[in-house]
Amino acid sequence: MQTKRVYIDGVSPEPELISEGANWLRAGELVAFPTETVYGLGANALSASACAKIFAAKGRPQDNPLIVHVCNRAMADRYVDGWTAEAEQCAHHFWPGPLTLVLKKKPLIPDNVTAGLPNIALRMPSHPVALRLIEESGLPIAAPSANLSGKPSPTNGSHVWRDMKGKIPLILDAGACPVGLESTVLDLSGKVPTILRPGGITKEKLEEILGEVQIDVPHENQAPKAPGMKYRHYAPQGEMILLVGSSQRVVQRMGLEIQRGHARLKKVGILCTLESAPFLHHLLPDLLFVLGSQNRPEEIAASLFEGLRVCDERGMDLILAEGIEEAGLGSAIMNRLQKAAGQRVEFI
Ligand code: TXA
Ligand code: MG
Fold first, then answer.
1. Could you tell me the pLDDT band of residue 286, with boundaries at 50, 70 and 90?
2. How remote is the CA of residue 182 from the centroid of ligand 1, in Å?
3. How far away, in angstroms, is 151 Cα from ligand 1 center?
4. Sheet holding 287-292, edge to edge
């Protein structure tokens, strides 16, 4: 299939480009589009056959359900069997934005969208292109991140192009996604609101509105509540180690690993904070990617997936990443880094 990539204004999207996207969606085809978190791979959420194409294009396991995107509360209402007071509060405070709500679904949502689960995951994105596309198509849009399954989520149009060219008819490219990490997935179907995936809206912010909020800790021998969380994600091709500790210790250890790696003729890449970078560059890693300042985790969130992808493109055999404090947005960043490292985390 020939893939067309068009550049679209992320603030005031050109109506003719939105129409083109909406037409493909109504015709049961896939369209990649920007959201404030990451790019989505969209299909008509009311069509099982359109959504089946998402699983095929990504190579996504069938048991991993899709988030359905809506453009207003009334649209969300049509697919949820009973809004709770908590859902109302969340939508009021955080929509449009990077928060996905898991609630009981109505039967008109096809089973492959929810992977047979009784609940639906819903989100109203804030990106103008996403909102206009949903409005214009008049459809709820099922959309996972627009990467090949297992790869880092795409945070710009080039990432989508690399993963999806030849597989889908249209990519709407509006440049970089401002948040850069996927939405927080919050399960409101049980007694206590539970975060299934940390993301752009932090636990602290949710607690201000909801009171007690739990974080789901998947147990061995038990299916995780967000099936996607069990897969190895964001995995770069090279081996990756996440190092957590004081900046000084991390720098020291990285120096040692660079030497060891070079002795074995490995290419060693570093993902680090702005504060550590001045102490690392003279150790001559093959790649030094500065994620952002420790004091501005939103900067790190926005560049993390680009950093992981650059390591692959430049053929790094070993990737050493610096951990950050697990508070606020730092929790979501550390969650993605841990997954990328395949749980190879060292506290030093
Ligand atoms: O920011 C985002 O959420 C992006 C943009 C495109 O909106 N989407 C995204 O989708 O990250 P995806 O498919 O890559 O991740 C969705 C996560 C998975 O972990 C999945 O298992 C979980 O949400 N999920 C989806 N539907 C669910 C449901 N009904 N119950 C529990 N978890 C669900
Ligand atoms: Mg994904």
1. very high
2. 8
3. 15
4. 287-292, 268-273, 318-322, 239-244, 345-347
Torsion sign across C-alpha atoms 39, 84, 110, 70: negative
Please give the full DSSP string across 267-319, using - where no structure is assigned. Answer: -EEEEEETTTHHHHGGG--SEEEEEE-TT-HHHHHHHHHHHHHHHHHTT-SEE
Pocket test for ligand 1, best of 58, 67, 101, 184 (most atoms within 8 A of CB): 67
Pocket test for ligand 1, best of 51, 114, 123, 185 (most atoms within 8 A of CB): 185
CB of 119 shorter than 6 A to ligand 1: yes
Amino acid at 110: P
- For the Cβ of 67 lying below 6 angstroms from any atom of ligand 1, the answer is yes
Q: How far apart are CA 76 and CA 59, in angstroms?
A: 28
Q: pLDDT per residue over 17-42, tens digit each?
A: 999 999 999 999 999 999 999 999 99
Distance of CA 156 to the CA centre of its chain: 12
Ordered DSSP codes for 82-143: S--HHHHHHHHHH-SSSEEEEEEBPTTS-HHHHTT-SEEEEE----HHHHHHHHHHTS-EE-
Q: Which residue has the tokens 């988030």?
A: 67
The two three-digit tokens of residue 136, written as one number: 């214009």
